[in-house]
């Protein structure tokens, strides 16, 4: 039953959430927020769990198509209020999150950050794209200019219905400046912020943290608190011009960010660590010849897990892993080793990089892939207890066994089918026999120059999910093997 911005949902006797047993876990009334709903367009109330997956089973194909279409419409932006925007899991508009992340990764060292104006046409087009479907917009260096992104953020804050600091609270913000005692003034600002709606408070917190981070890097970008407050005051209050008292309010928010938003010492240390790694090459040009800015994901390919790392020509996988883990302040142990993996074919294939592998060479080789954009680097942990148990010795004996095999493109008479072959791994060579009775191998493939990936491309229709994909440099072909 829809009620304002909430949808009250109760299951019938035969309808229970996935994994819920009606006899042991009765489904009680739940309140679902539906900021992404469009009742006027669909004429039906559609609700989405926050940070949950909703499983929908249609009785017919038509049912499914209607639901799919309705959810797609509901996922778009419908309105100019803050709550009408597509939101992240932290209740912050995705457009704000994306712009802040881009500026943090590429602009902390810029001396004209938020001061230099972008191209008006580019800014308007990017802002409209964000408003149509923010989730589909991926800001990329080279494609998007820093000053365009910063202007998009300021324009968005200036144009939303009602100011982020709320026009009704304007006199309270200004009157707080008259309080001479700093501690009392900070407490007053905190009280005002606590009266803000949830979305405004979350967005203001993220934005203030961003500005506080920028001024922490003033030794690099030479931007002080006053400059940043001057750049944002009219956006946050949605007023014309830059009034001194409005600038002073924003200055106070940035200056006393730690106290007002109750930031812990651990969070500050984390910010300092991230800033130190991001601005590590502060004395070099952003486009330094030979260096490359690449996206590295931590554990999963998700936007929140993305870190931008500057890769020098000599950086190896071990250094990249150390840098990524260092930014996130992750403690490593002997039993849990963190390493860098190369992932290609839209996540279907991945391989562990040797700690001495050159990262830049690996990334540049992606240009030879059919879809270079689907490749990325992933830093994650894996248990080494079994691999590094005391007393275990490495076996150098010949390994043999039957596996199903296929070349891509196929050169066998069987065409697209997987053919069973007998394999032997001996003296750094992979020998392929027609069967166990044969003495002469059909193929002799050098293992040293090969790249072994876990997984097999789905388009090959493998018989099982257990397999390896091996790229051989000289033969320029792909060998796919599946274990019985």
Automatic annotation (TrEMBL):
Q: Tell me where in this chain the Ras-associating domain is found.
A: 290-383
Got a GO cellular component term for this one?
cytoplasm
- Annotated signal sequence is none
A Pfam family: RhoGAP
Q: Which GO terms describe its biological process?
A: signal transduction
Residues in Rho-GAP domain copies: 80-261
Extract the GO molecular function terms from the UniProt entry.
Answer: GTPase activator activity; phosphatidylinositol-3,4,5-trisphosphate binding
Q: Does the keyword Hydrolase apply?
A: no
Stated name of the protein: Arf-GAP with Rho-GAP domain, ANK repeat and PH domain-containing 2
The organism is Pelobates cultripes
